[in-house]
Design brief:
Serine Threonine Protein Phosphatase 5, Tetratricopeptide repeat; 15 helices
């Protein structure tokens, strides 16, 4: 069941935004924006194509307050690495509809720009204006409070990162995501809590045993504890999983706490 859930998350990423209900404009007797919204949400070329981008241009010209069009027009620039143009467009979308786009902009600042302070500001601002859960990353990997914790980790505030993750996991209504326990386990190791590291890395394996990373980090702990048998078992398991494709992956960026085959082989060689 865990593997099925993991696969579905990869195939069907959770979106932090959705197509607008164009009928709202019609109900408010705003025919220009209704037509613009309909144009923006219907077919019109592949994402990033000239036809598609011109469609959003026409929609924006007809309805300058249509945040969805700015948002969708920005995406191809992000994927192509034109962060300046992306930022101009997504900032406009946020200005028009902060609750709809702050989470997305914050996630992208973390994932693509490594703008950790900017990401934290966006997520905290979103939290301040919502009375409910702030949502999830666009790829479905993280609840956005976990993203905020990873930003604090990247800024060197690891104890704060641990506190945020533990608070999120303690919520009765929260279901852990694929990488939550992995990140918490690594953070425990990095702050000197070896027992906590072992606990949460094992929880990661129990929750989703389709990742090489928990075995790799467990191997590092056992190496430090001078337990060669346990070290070798876990590091070889990490290698087996890695070669099967059971590893952290993102098509655009290097995910936090990801490992590479060279890391595993270097560790195995060090104990020969």
């Amino acid at each position: 069941m865990k593997f099925i859930l993991f696969t579905l998350i990869l195939i069907c990423p959770i979106s932090t935004y959705s197509q607008p209900n164009c009928n709202v404009y019609q109900m408010n007797n705003d025919q220009p924006c209704y037509e613009a919204c309909t144009l923006a949400t219907t077919g019109g070329g592949a994402q990033g194509s000239r036809k598609s981008q011109e469609k959003f241009d026409r929609a924006i010209e007809q309805c300058p307050k249509l945040d969805y069009a700015y948002m969708e027009k920005s995406v191809p620039y992000l994927k192509r690495g034109d962060f300046i143009t992306w930022k101009i467009l997504i900032d406009k979308a946020v200005e028009l509809n902060p609750t709809g786009h702050l989470g997305y902009r914050g996630w992208c600042r973390y994932q693509f720009l490594r703008d950790y302070e900017g990401a934290i500001k966006d997520l905290e601002r979103l939290d301040s204006i919502l009375s409910y859960d702030i949502g999830y990353s666009i790829n479905g990997d993280y609840q956005l409070n976990i993203v905020k914790a990873l930003c604090y980790k990247a800024l060197g505030q690891k104890s704060k990162a641990i506190e945020i993750i533990e608070n999120q996991l303690a919520q009765n209504s929260y279901t852990p995501m694929t990488y939550d326990y992995l990140h918490l386990g690594v953070l425990k190791i990095e702050t000197g809590d070896t027992n906590g590291g072992i606990e949460y890395l094992k929880k990661s394996i129990s929750f989703n045993d389709y990742l090489a990373e928990p075995y790799y980090y467990l191997g590092l702990i056992y190496k430090k504890q001078n337990l060669p048998k346990e070290f070798k078992e876990n590091m070889e398991k990490a290698k087996t999983y890695y070669l099967k494709g059971y590893k952290r992956f993102d098509p655009y960026t290097h995910p936090m706490d990801k490992i590479y085959l060279a890391d595993i082989e270097r560790e195995l060689k060090s104990m020969e």
